[in-house]
Specification:
The protein is α/β, with parallel strands linked by helices. It has three domains: 164 residues, FAD/NAD(P)-binding domain (3-Layer(bba) Sandwich); 170 residues, Alpha-Beta Complex (Polyamine Oxidase, Chain A, domain 2); 86 residues, de novo design (two linked rop proteins) (Up-down Bundle). 28% of the residues lie in helices and 19% in strands. Helix 2 packs parallel to helix 8, helix 2 runs parallel beside helix 15 and helix 4 runs antiparallel to helix 5. The longest helix has 22 residues. The protein is globular. The two termini are 33 Å apart.
Length: 518
């Protein structure tokens, strides 16, 4: 696994801070854990001017292609960045009034009102606070950031088979789960079940910790907690402050993995607070990068052939109805494998096989414009609600608080059978199904939601998938003068930071080849 991480150019938590295995006396210490992987390549690792007199063609102006072009140009390479679409950014797409969402079998106009806060991030929507390279480019190029509310304890979880299908407030699930677990562990300690593991002092300290952790009473029992809120707290105007909610039975909370799995979601390293988003829409990020490489960027230039030559590569693309052949020393291919498989090429058998078999998530997102009733009626300011229905998630916007209107993400299907089914729906069918299911969380939503729009990434031209699901192998190595990049070739698939890391790995390969030739 560590070798695979190193091959993908990703710094693991073991190796990102450098090697300190030698003592001050110069005697190596015995290894204290798994072998460390080398840090991933990054700007500053490559010799200045290595690219002088050399040409690179970069294919695909998503985040990987934009970053590759920017950093290669800084090393002296003459670059051309080809993009089939009429915009840069790839799957980083923000839809606003007047835009159109084109799929392979439909076109949806975006009918939102014209307002700075009425937009829909159809692709990447959040940035973990430790995705340092992406955040570094935002800082360098002036992309303003704000908080993305990924975890809001005021939001709801809804499972059809429990509690009569009624949504449950997340804070109540959290408080009752912690309380019951703390009470059980306290009972085990009191019954001397952990005497072999705990000293007398430890027992006292752990019991005190558990009373705080679970909000237990003086006898280490759990009978409910003010942390769970009060009756009607999710409804604006409630007058029941100070009333203790009865604790949910532990058996109800463990009857299905839905409750703990959904509440544990934001414990994942890439989902922990603080999360960030670009002010005004996530496309501010690729737009800022594209502005830096504007002279190298060619839009509306779909590639029609990828060939190897004795000295490098030849890329054939369309330009205003004519075929153009471009020869270069290197090609950096940043296309999704789902698109690349349809382009004639002379890659070797291993690369062709992996490209043809690479799987992508059939993710779907569906958004509506609506009055911000979730704020006025339910005190919901950002965050994500979960349901076990196909729509999976409902997102409340993390910007424009207090506005009259907002864009509600009514469904986010990550993939699987539900993702395939919604992908195969017509756009109107997706909207109808989403409103019918979201009514379990918000019964009045179908009456106020309007101007819906959806994106099924498996049907978006030049993308044909949301993010890579396969484990790369051959594509981590060069084929002649071509190297490959994209989120699907990183240890962070689906993340913009993964695309950047893959671009750095591709640059490292290009630089290594030219260093050997010098």
């Amino acid at each position: 696994m560590l070798r695979a991480m190193a091959a993908m150019g990703v710094a693991s938590s073991l190796g990102a801070c450098g090697d300190s295995s030698a003592s001050t006396a110069g005697i190596p210490r015995p290894p204290s854990g798994p072998p460390r992987s080398p840090p991933s390549p990054r700007p500053g690792d490559w010799p200045a001017g290595i690219g002088n007199g050399r040409r690179v063609v970069v294919i695909g102006a998503g985040i990987a292609g934009l970053v590759a072009t920017l950093e290669l140009r800084r090393l002296g390479y003459a670059c051309t960045l080809l993009e089939a679409a009429d915009r840069a950014g790839g799957r980083v797409r923000t839809l606003r009034a007047g835009d159109a969402l084109v799929e392979t079998d439909s076109v949806q106009p975006c009918l939102f009102d014209l307002h700075e806060n009425l937009y829909f991030n159809a692709g990447p929507s959040r940035i973990p606070h430790h995705h340092e390279f992406l955040l570094g480019y935002c800082r360098e190029f002036g992309v303003a950031l704000e908080t993305f509310v990924n975890d809001n304890r005021a939001t709801w979880l809804q499972r059809q088979a429990q509690f009569g299908g009624a949504p449950q407030v997340a804070r109540r699930i959290d408080a009752d789960t912690r309380g019951h677990i703390a009470a059980l562990l306290s009972t085990a300690i009191d019954r001397n079940a952990l005497d072999a593991e705990l000293s007398a002092t430890d027992r006292t300290r752990v019991l005190a910790m558990l009373r705080q952790f679970g909000d237990l009473d003086a006898s280490s029992a759990y009978a409910g907690s003010h942390r769970a809120g009060f009756p009607g707290q999710e409804d604006a105007g409630s007058r029941e402050r100070g009333t203790l909610l009865p604790a949910r039975d532990l058996q109800e909370l463990i009857a299905d993995t839905f409750w703990t799995a959904r509440r544990a979601f934001t414990d994942g390293l890439d989902q922990q607070p603080v999360m960030l988003q670009a002010v005004g829409g996530m496309d501010r990020i690729p737009n800022a990068l594209a502005a830096q490489v504007a002279t190298e960027l060619v839009l509306n230039a779909p590639v029609t052939e990828l060939r190897k030559t004795a000295s490098g590569v030849r890329v054939v693309y369309e330009n205003m109805g004519s075929a153009v052949a471009l020869d270069a020393d290197h090609g950096v291919c940043c296309l999704p494998a789902s698109v690349l498989t349809g382009i004639p090429n002379d890659f070797d058998a291993a690369h062709r096989a992996e490209i043809g078999g690479f799987a992508y998530a059939p993710a779907v997102r569906i958004a509506f414009q609506a009055p911000r009733f979730w704020e006025r009626e339910h005190n919901l300011y950002g965050g994500i609600a979960w349901t076990d229905q196909d729509i999976t998630q409902v997102w409340y916007p993390s910007h424009g608080f207090g506005d009259e209107q907002g864009i509600l993400l009514g469904a986010y299907l990550f993939g699987g059978a539900a993702g395939e089914a919604f992908t195969n729906h017509t756009p109107p069918q997706r909207l109808d199904a989403t409103l019918a299911q979201a009514a379990a969380l918000h019964p009045g939503l179908p009456g106020v939601a309007a101007r819906g729009i959806s994106v099924a990434w498996n049907k978006v031209p030049w993308q044909l998938g949301a993010w890579g699901l396969s484990t790369p192998s051959a594509l981590l190595s060069a084929d002649g003068g071509y190297v490959f990049a994209g989120e699907h070739l990183s240890i962070l698939p689906a993340w913009q930071e993964g695309a950047i890391l893959s671009a750095y790995r591709a640059i490292d390969s290009v630089v290594a080849r030219d260093s050997q030739a010098t």
